[in-house]
Automatic annotation (TrEMBL):
Its main location: cytoplasm. Fe(2+) binds at residues 183, 264. Pathway: Porphyrin-containing compound metabolism; protoheme biosynthesis. PROSITE patterns: FERROCHELATASE. This is Coproporphyrin III ferrochelatase. The lineage of its organism: Bacteria, Bacillati, Bacillota, Bacilli, Bacillales. Involved in coproporphyrin-dependent heme b biosynthesis. Catalyzes the insertion of ferrous iron into coproporphyrin III to form Fe-coproporphyrin III. It comes from Paenibacillus residui. It catalyses: Fe-coproporphyrin III + 2 H(+) = coproporphyrin III + Fe(2+). Pfam families: Ferrochelatase.
Length: 311
């Protein structure tokens, strides 16, 4: 008897595969409006600073998708899971992933985004695109909305906080300010009863409880450059504020909104935040990204399987 076959659409923001793809990528983010030469140059400089000609970022997502497929098939041997990528701003786009599933004869599918926290503007938008393409092609897809309090995710993140606290040597834990961060979104989500902020705070509190943290707060990073206000204050401003007003000298950044090493971690934190901390005379560290941590892969496997079997 042949195994039940299930397609899993693994969605993420996407990143270019090489320096020469940056302009097309940036144009897609800007809804078809090409960036100015200055904007393009600035983004290229950011990628150049972290990759130096070698472009590992897409490989991170490729490895996550492969590891999830392996985990699903190991944990549920009675089902054949096949994972497909769907990217928001790069090829293969979300619609391409859905189309490929249909071409491969998939009749049962689950969509999951490589982001634990739900917002209508992020995860909701990914799911909407996949759902619409699925309806157009006659494929019904079920979706995981969020998994921000999954015990294995919390365990993986707590371990990272505990490990990183060790980088401060003999400094007492209570003298280290832990700042959980996530990607800012346009502030109008606050008027939409969007769960994004609440879910991020719930994750932060859960990790703080598990790691026994009393000295922690939340910070926003990587806001878009648009005319509308974004959630803030920005992490760079936060670092200056806590240094000036509270004389904080030791800071651990824990970017819980990001699940792999991408521009927002490797540039916005590892370069920009570190430079700011250096200028302020602060000792700054960050937690390691989840990438293909088995606990994270098991989290994704659990939520995909749970959604598949939900009546």
């Amino acid at each position: 008897m042949s195994k039940r076959k299930v397609g899993v659409l693994v969605m993420s923001y996407g990143t270019p595969e090489s320096m020469d793809q940056i302009e097309a990528y940036y144009t897609h983010i800007r809804r078809g409006h090409p960036p100015t030469p200055e904007q393009l140059d600035e983004l290229k400089q950011r990628y150049e600073a972290i990759v130096g000609g070698f472009f590992p970022l897409r490989k991170n997502t490729d490895r996550q998708v492969a590891a999830l497929q392996e985990t699903l098939n190991r944990e549920h041997p009675d089902i054949e899971f096949v994972c497909y990528q769907g990217l928001k701003h790069a090829s293969p786009f979300i619609e391409d992933g859905v189309e490929q599933m249909v071409k491969d004869g998939i009749t049962e599918a689950v969509g999951v985004v490589l982001a634990p926290h739900y917002s209508t503007m992020s995860v909701g938008a990914y799911n909407k695109r996949a759902k619409e393409k699925g309806e157009e092609l006659g494929l019904s897809i079920r979706f995981v909305d969020s998994y921000h309090l999954h015990p294995k995710l919390l365990k993986a993140l707590t371990q990272r906080v505990e490990n990183a606290l060790g980088k401060f040597g003999d400094v007492p834990k209570d003298d280290i300010r832990v700042i959980f961060t996530a990607h800012s979104l346009p502030a109008r989500i606050l008027e939409m009863n969007d769960p994004y902020v609440d879910q991020l705070m719930e994750t932060s509190r859960a990790i703080a409880d598990r790691a026994g943290l009393s000295n922690w707060q939340f910070g926003w990073q990587s806001a878009g450059q648009t005319a509308t206000p974004w959630l803030g204050p920005d992490i760079l401003d936060t670092l200056e504020t806590i240094h000036k007003e509270e004389q904080v000298k030791n800071v651990l950044l824990c970017p819980i909104g990001f699940v792999s090493d991408h521009l927002e971690v490797l540039y916005d934190i590892d370069i920009e935040c570190r430079q700011t901390a250096e200028q302020l005379g602060m000792h700054l560290e960050r937690t390691e990204s989840l990438n293909t941590d088995p606990l994270y892969m098991e989290t994704l496997s659990d939520v995909v399987y749970t959604e598949l079997e939900r009546k």
